[in-house]
Specification:
CblAdoTrfase-like_sf, Hypothetical Protein Ta1238, Chain: A, two-stranded antiparallel ribbon, mainly alpha, about 190 residues
Length: about 190
Amino acid sequence: MVVLNKIYTKTGDDGETALGNGARVAKHSMRVTAYGTTDELNSVVGLARLHAEGVTDTRLSLIQNDLFDLGADLCRPDMEKDADAEYPPLRIVSSQVDRLEAEIDEMNSGLKPLRSFILPGGSALSAYLHQCRTVARRAERLTVELATMESVNPAAVKYLNRLSDWFFVAARVANDNGTADVLWVPGANR
């Protein structure tokens, strides 16, 4: 259980922060950058939810919770020590990836195939979902980079990969099932 009764602790004033296992690292470390970007993504999802309703809002709520799970996963290195931990660390699991895939398939089933790349925009919700997509891709790139240096849960990388696809398809749905997508016209302004 999390208890936050004091918001500032002054323990980060020297440029370091604590990971989930208690280890102190520089605030600019790749691990902190990766999970910090998932936190940024969660904020953008919150903005998208201002324009979402019904099933889309419900699904975005689940994604926000998943992103906290992902942050908890990424802030806890040493996966090989999970079994020995006093409290088992929270890790992204394959069922979370599977849920995204099922939702992508369901949303995509009502869309016509793309014959052009699309530009971010159309409705406000679609524009925010495209912003979510690009921040998710950045979080994925940073997490993949982290995985070249330290242990990272492979399901976390898969989750981020599917999540950006989820945002892309959801953005098309938000644009009147793709009929209001803004199409790219190559070389239109030459």
